[in-house]
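User: What would this chain look like folded?
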Amino acid sequence: MIFEVIILGFPELTEKRLLLFGLMFNIYVMALSGNLLIIIVTNLDASLQSPMYFFLGYLSMLDICYISATVPLMLVILVSHHNHLSFSACIVQLYMVVFLEGAECFLLAIMAYDRYAAICRPLHYSIIMKRGVCYKLLLGGILCSLLHSMLHTTLIIRLPFCDNEINHLFCDIPPLLKLSCVDTYLNEAILFGVSAVFVGLGALVYILISYVYIILTILKNTSNVGRRKMFSTCAAHIIIVNIFYGTGSFTYVRPKSSYSLERDKLVSVIYNVATPFLNPIVYSLRNSEVKRALKNGCRKLFIYKGRV
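Assistant: Here's the prediction, encoded as structure tokens.
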């Protein structure tokens, strides 16, 4: 049983620590600001009270929690060289990271279902996606994510460890498996079977099926303007799904023997930093209603400041 772990981070970039710190700190602040702005706008603007923007606000909240679960520790390590962490704190971080990843998988699937209901069942949309239904869908995703994270965390705690140096940026499943003294076949099997197949692939298959129906419905629309509007409402979600699943599959859907932690650290930065950073940018640039709400909010703020 180990009582303390050492997060190695980027030991090969010692001379560029401050540059890397500045870059990550700026991205972190912009990600927090962008997602917080999305939450405020979707809650205060009267025209953005539909289920689509309700889920978008929840996605931004998840992104804030997700990036805050990893990046502050990275920044501390970069600026202070204090890379010692208690094993219990490492497990808490692991639990939060796995939980938030699972919650985002389920949320992306729920958002795909929302788009399906809006485009394929427009006359029944207000009934299908009532606010109570939205809360139940979110609650179901949260409960599944909590159980999913608890399963992995419990299996990790049961492992005996021969080393306490984590050659990574934070406590995650693949680098912790590298420290084990015993065969981790069961952990890898569950990581692939539960995480990759049930959570990740299951949500992705549901998203793909939803978009098959969406595309078929759009193609039946004889109006080019109507087609463009329908595609526009789905474009941002499709981009985010590609970013999230692209980096996530490279990080987790591989056997332990193929892990290259030095190479994977860069992918982890993209997976844990770039995705929360890009979400508000993608949704604000690809969505005319969000852009309009942001412009109205800025205009009201300037008017208020002018009066003060």
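The two ends are 61 Å apart (CA to CA). If you want, I can go into more detail on any region.
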